[in-house]
Specification:
The chain is of the alpha/beta class. The protein has eight helices and five strands; from the N terminus they run βαβαααβαβααβα. It has helices spanning 15-26, 33-43, 45-53, 59-72, 88-100, 115-125, 132-155, 168-179, and strands spanning 3-9, 28-32, 78-82, 107-112, 159-163. The chain has a five-stranded parallel sheet with strand order 2-3-1-4-5, sandwiched between helices. Helix 2 (33-43) packs across helix 3. The two termini are 15 Å apart. The structure holds adenosine-5'-diphosphate.
């Protein structure tokens, strides 16, 4: 039976680090839409600008990527989406897509962190979209748009909130417990 876990959290909450742990420690296959968006940006100037502005990439492209990743190895095992769904349309599309294959999102983990801490972490990391202005825009998109995704999963009773302020290994322990 497939397991589908959604990992949510604002930029800087530590989704990538935790997804790496879950991949090695619990054998989750990670579907990371941010990496896909960056690979598109290398070939397409409009998408480069979208990322630099902290806006979301077109849903059609993102949804197709997620579908391909899940379908290509035939639904076996455990999947974890990192950075997806990021708006309500993606969340509803994902439910529809999964239900056509008679499965559903199993659990949703929210890595929870105050904006100020997230911003500090991102400024230290220094990716090209980690400048002050773009970070503020991404945090705004997260609050206004991804916030609805959080409500959507909370209403479905699937949301588990994990404090993202402690050390990566402490968060990882909390996550493994949440997913056990
Ligand atoms: P972060 O969570 O720090 O913003 P990501 O690597 O998850 O980092 O995302 C970087 C950028 O990639 C986003 O700002 C957005 O432009 C794009 N992106 C990632 N995931 C999605 C998605 N599900 N839908 C639309 N755009 C996305």
């Amino acid at each position: 039976m497939s397991q589908i876990v959604v990992l949510l959290g604002k930029p800087g909450a530590g989704k990538d680090t935790q997804a790496d742990f879950l991949s090695t420690q619990m054998n989750y296959k990670i579907i990371k839409t941010g990496d896909f968006a960056r690979s598109l940006a290398k070939k397409n100037k409009n998408i480069t600008q979208t990322l630099q502005r902290g806006q979301l990439v077109d849903n059609g492209l993102i949804n197709r990527y997620v579908a391909d990743e899940i379908l290509k190895d035939g639904w076996h095992g455990r999947y974890l989406t990192d950075g997806f769904p990021r708006d309500l349309e993606q969340a509803k599309w994902f439910d529809d897509f999964l239900s056509k294959h008679k499965i559903a999102v199993t659990k949703v983990i929210l890595l929870d962190l105050p904006d100020e801490m997230a911003k500090d972490r991102l400024l230290k990391r220094g990716r090209t979209d980690d400048t002050g202005e773009t970070i503020d825009r991404r945090l705004g998109v997260y609050r206004d748009i991804t916030g609805r995704v959080i409500d959507y999963y909370r209403q479905q009773d699937k949301l588990i909130s994990v404090d993202a302020a402690p050390s990566p290994s402490q968060i990882s322990t909390a996550l493994r417990e949440a997913l056990a």
